[in-house]
């Protein structure tokens, strides 16, 4: 215990000064925004971890678990910082395991059920392509603490995007069946992607102080990347609106999130205050 | 570990061996490693395929009982550690299938045999994981029992198997420690947590002892495998070593091993302990364990429902090879 506490004290000491953490006016938006980052990775990580032991081939079992592990690691960093900004004595675990659905701030896209591997991969690809642009911008954030986390996460997310892009191409241009499954997945998920680019007051406040990018500015690069992969995969970009399903990041979720939380939070809820 | 009751092929005395067989046995006796393209008796090859295959299957079926708790892990750190651990197990499966492939059997053929029931996986994975303490008990007892067998197998005569074991052992010792760390937290936790920890030990103790297989002191198969250095110790030796090491660990946790006859024997320098119910063991092997059906069904479903995925990737690989060939021809 002492050793761990020492390491943690050293890390705290080594952390860059960040005036944003002491900005009382900024606090509610900053906290909310950090929860958005951490909840996206937590919920997508949860979904991917559901595949463990059930993948179509051993290499996929390993890759899915590995990606889930990366995302849970990002969650620890984002929610850890959120707890610090909030400064009410809550920990990253408290935020993950003791908030109810209306307090969760992830986009609806990541909470959708896994379906088949086509849906799982397409969901991850569409998110990865956004995540990559977001983290690239955040690595240059005006908040040194945010920039530090983004730079760490970006290394892993660059690989996530490379992997899903490659699989989208192969399966889109594979057999007739794999093509249909990928197209169906794309059609189904497309209306959920716009939420990632729709800014509200929280996003605007973050952009204004230079912590986060203007979300709409990420869209062109995301589209270019996605279009390129879909073209090579011989998949057709849907003509439907991409911003139909919104509200996740304001806490209005699909019915699916409640079940994720019921499962994820079971032990913390059943044995309050126990240490694990 | 994870290889139980592996049938070995015949046992010959040195006089009955052909010159090739004798030279082969002498190489093993000198401690040389046998490598994939070298001559080997057909029985050696077949026995190894059975043993490595069963071990590989155990690693991938073994993802299921622990995977069962990943989505319910109580903290982010525990979730990350468990994910890393289960991912390691899948990685072990990969090394071992690769080692088996060097003996001329494909991964797909081995999978087929697992799914048809022609090949087995360790009996232990047919027991359910019912509470979070089971993640502790599995790491502590199941990985602990596996290590007993795998450490000596690092010196096994077949090169690729030995090298796979060396890598696997490094990770397994972490797994056992993470399991024990969970047990410590639980045993020192709230009364409910302690109750879960004791219950997990009660349920996993005898199944862990079964992992070593029944007593093999009279078994011909065992003798041949030991002569070939495919098996390094008898089942009883390993079981005794496991009990001797685990009992003090249970005491340190303040938990009670569910064996009233358990007693230190000064004369032998070992613990005396009760044998598990071997009838139950054979029933589990026959398919009548608590989770045999679920485990095999989960693996079959993963395979069958993943067929389109594998076919898609294969079709793409063929198409792009054809495109490359056409581009070359056009030059």
From TrEMBL, chain A:
GO cellular component: cytosol
InterPro entries: Aromatic_CoA_ox/epox (IPR052703), Ferritin-like (IPR012347), Ferritin-like_SF (IPR009078), PaaA_PaaC (IPR007814), PaaC (IPR011882)
BP GO terms, sorted: phenylacetate catabolic process
Coiled coil: none
Pfam families recorded: PaaA_PaaC
Annotated protein name in UniProt: Phenylacetate-CoA oxygenase subunit PaaI
Species this chain originates from: Paracoccus alkanivorans
Protein's gene: paaI
TrEMBL record, chain B:
Any single Gene Ontology cellular-component annotation: cytosol
Annotated GO biological process: phenylacetate catabolic process
Region annotation (Disordered) ranges: 1-21
InterPro entries assigned to the protein according to its UniProt record, in alphabetical order: Aromatic_CoA_ox/epox (IPR052703), Ferritin-like (IPR012347), Ferritin-like_SF (IPR009078), PaaA (IPR011881), PaaA_PaaC (IPR007814)
Residues in coiled coil: none
Composition-biased stretches (Basic and acidic residues): 9-21
Name the record gives this protein: 1,2-phenylacetyl-CoA epoxidase subunit A
């Amino acid at each position: 215990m002492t050793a761990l506490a020492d390491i943690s004290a050293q890390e705290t000491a080594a952390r860059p000064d960040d005036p944003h953490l002491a900005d009382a006016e900024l606090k509610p938006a900053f906290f909310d925004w950090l929860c958005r980052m951490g909840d996206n990775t937590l919920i997508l990580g949860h979904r991917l971890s559901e595949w463990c032991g059930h993948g179509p081939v051993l290499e996929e079992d390993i890759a899915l678990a590995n990606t889930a592990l990366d995302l849970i690691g990002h969650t620890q960093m984002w929610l850890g910082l959120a707890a610090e900004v909030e400064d009410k004595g809550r920990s990253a675990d408290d935020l993950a395991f003791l908030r109810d659905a209306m307090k969760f701030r992830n986009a609806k896209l990541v909470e959708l059920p896994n379906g088949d591997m086509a849906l799982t991969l397409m969901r991850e690809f569409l998110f990865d392509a956004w995540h990559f642009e977001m983290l690239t911008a955040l690595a240059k954030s005006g908040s040194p603490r945010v920039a530090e986390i983004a730079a760490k996460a970006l290394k892993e997310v660059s690989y996530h995007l490379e992997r899903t892009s490659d699989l989208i191409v192969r399966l889109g241009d594979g057999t007739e069946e794999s093509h249909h499954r990928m197209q169906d997945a794309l059609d189904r998920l497309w209306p959920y992607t716009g939420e990632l680019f729709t800014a509200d007051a929280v996003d605007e406040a973050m952009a204004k102080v230079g912590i986060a990018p203007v979300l709409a500015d990420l869209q062109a690069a995301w589209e270019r990347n996605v279009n390129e992969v879909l073209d090579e995969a011989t998949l057709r970009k849907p003509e439907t609106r991409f911003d139909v399903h919104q509200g996740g990041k304001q806490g209005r979720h699909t019915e699916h999130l409640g079940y994720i939380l019921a499962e994820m939070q079971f032990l913390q809820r059943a044995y309050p205050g126990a240490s694990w | 570990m994870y290889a139980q009751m592996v049938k070995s092929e015949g046992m010959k005395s040195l006089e009955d061996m052909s010159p090739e067989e004798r030279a082969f046995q002498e190489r093993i006796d000198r401690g040389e490693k046998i490598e994939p393209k070298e001559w080997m008796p057909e029985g050696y090859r077949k026995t190894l395929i059975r043993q490595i295959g069963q071990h590989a299957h155990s690693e991938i079926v073994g993802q299921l009982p622990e995977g069962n708790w990943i989505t319910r892990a109580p903290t982010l750190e525990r979730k990350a550690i468990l994910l890393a651990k289960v991912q390691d197990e899948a990685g072990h499966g990969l090394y071992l299938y690769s080692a088996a492939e060097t003996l001329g059997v494909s991964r797909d053929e081995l999978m087929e045999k697992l799914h048809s029931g022609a090949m087995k996986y360790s009996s232990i994975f047919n027991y359910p994981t019912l509470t979070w303490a089971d993640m502790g008990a599995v790491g502590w007892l199941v990985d602990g029992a596996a290590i007993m067998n795998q450490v000596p197998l690092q010196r096994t005569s077949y090169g690729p198997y030995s090298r796979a074991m060396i890598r696997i052992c490094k990770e397994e010792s972490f797994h056992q420690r993470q399991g024990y760390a969970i047990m410590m937290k639980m045993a020192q936790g709230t009364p409910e947590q302690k109750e879960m920890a004791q219950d997990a030990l009660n349920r996993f103790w005898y199944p862990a002892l079964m992992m070593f297989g029944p007593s093999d002191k009279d078994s011909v198969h065992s003798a041949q495998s030991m002569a070939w250095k495919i098996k390094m110790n008898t089942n009883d030796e390993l079981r005794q070593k496991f009990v001797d090491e685990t009992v003090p660990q249970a005491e340190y946790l303040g938990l009670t091993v569910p064996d009233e006859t358990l007693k230190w024997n000064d004369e032998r320098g070992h613990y005396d302990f009760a044998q598990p119910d071997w009838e139950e063991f054979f029933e589990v092997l026959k398919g009548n364990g608590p989770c045999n059906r679920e485990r095999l069904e989960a693996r079959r479903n993963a395979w069958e429902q993943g067929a389109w995925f594998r076919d898609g990737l294969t079709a793409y690989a063929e198409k792009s090879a054809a495109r490359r060939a056409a581009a070359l021809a056009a030059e």
